[in-house]
Design goal:
The chain is of the alpha+beta class. 26% of the residues lie in helices and 37% in strands. It has a domain of 120 residues. It contains four helices and 14 strands. Strands 1, 2, 3, 6, 7, 8, 9, 10, 11, 12, 13 and 14 form a twelve-stranded antiparallel sheet that branches. A two-stranded antiparallel ribbon has the order 4-5.
Length: 293
């Protein structure tokens, strides 16, 4: 007959089984925790990337070299992106009217609201002749997008302006954000292919131009220590003496921990970080980067 288990053997088996059960439950807990962290990180990372894509799309329609930095604590303090200390946390730029550039359909064809091309021979210090344009289309589109602070390019001093491509002062702060704003030329519509300058001062005219009616600013609005809401300000015009606080605003990303940016040649690199609370005792910081050309 087979010998029965002794008491010592039974105790040993019970102890071993208990240890294995404890190890197994600990492994299951760790796997579950890792899955929660992984899912939270994935969800947060996707939200950050979506926000960066939205920002990049707006920035891709910027007037080149118009981007500067400001201090949210004192918006009148400005600096160029080439020499950027960390306390300058607001990214600001002038956008061109890309919706109006796309235009509308007439006679079965897509026609730009403004062509972006200037007839240098026909233009002078008082007017800009822009062949291939339907400025009535541009008027309607800009009116629709300028919302509760409407810009009607049929009216004098309406807020729209022409910026000639490549004709800038070296310092963008002086060129775009400081009176008399030498790179920005306010205009109104004379007819469907002609823009009238609001003044007849001497100006350098180039073959290519932007039509602009708004600046944009990305501002981290503080909730508490290391907790901010990244907010987009728009529909304001620095060349009319306005700053981003005069414009409309929309929340882009709530509860970010940091927003960083820098200029690399002609491109702008963005970094956005946010903290995700996993439990009462643990939170993870997730960051994303994007380069806008």
């Amino acid at each position: 007959m087979r010998r029965a288990f002794t008491l010592i053997e039974l105790v040993f088996v019970i102890v071993v089984m208990g240890i294995l059960a404890l190890i197994g439950s600990d492994i299951l807990v760790k796997v579950y925790e890792n899955k929660i962290i992984s899912d939270a990180a994935k969800d947060t990372s996707q939200r950050i990337q979506l926000a960066l894509e939205q920002i990049a799309r707006r920035l891709s329609y910027r007037v080149l070299d118009s981007a500067i930095a400001r201090q949210s604590s004192n918006p009148s303090n400005t600096i160029t992106l080439e020499t950027l200390p960390p306390n300058y946390d607001v990214l600001e730029w002038i956008g061109y009217a890309h919706e109006a550039l796309r235009g509308d359909v007439a006679g079965g064809y897509s026609i730009p609201g403004y062509s972006g091309f200037c007839d240098i021979q026909a233009s002078d210090k008082s007017k800009l002749v822009t062949p291939g344009s339907r400025l009535d289309f541009a008027k309607n589109i800009i009116l629709a997008f300028s919302g509760n602070r409407p810009v009607n390019i049929d009216n004098s001093n309406n807020g729209a302006a022409v910026i000639f491509k490549g004709v800038y002062i070296d310092d963008p702060i002086s060129a775009f954000y400081t009176s008399p704003y030498p790179a920005v030329h306010p205009v109104h519509r004379l007819n469907n292919t002609t823009l009238q300058f609001e003044n007849t001062n001497a100006k350098t005219i180039a073959e290519h131009y932007y039509l602009a009616y708004s600046a944009y600013a990305l501002v981290p609005v503080q909730n508490s220590s290391n907790d901010y809401n990244l907010t987009l300000y728009y529909n304001y015009r620095p060349w009319k003496g306005e700053n981003y606080l005069n414009g409309d605003h929309a929340l882009l990303v709530p509860h970010i921990s940091s927003f960083r940016f820098r200029k690399v040649d002609k491109s702008i690199e963005l970094q956005l970080c946010t903290k995700k609370k996993i439990s009462d005792s643990f939170s993870a910081e997730i960051c994303g980067k994007k380069v806008v050309f």
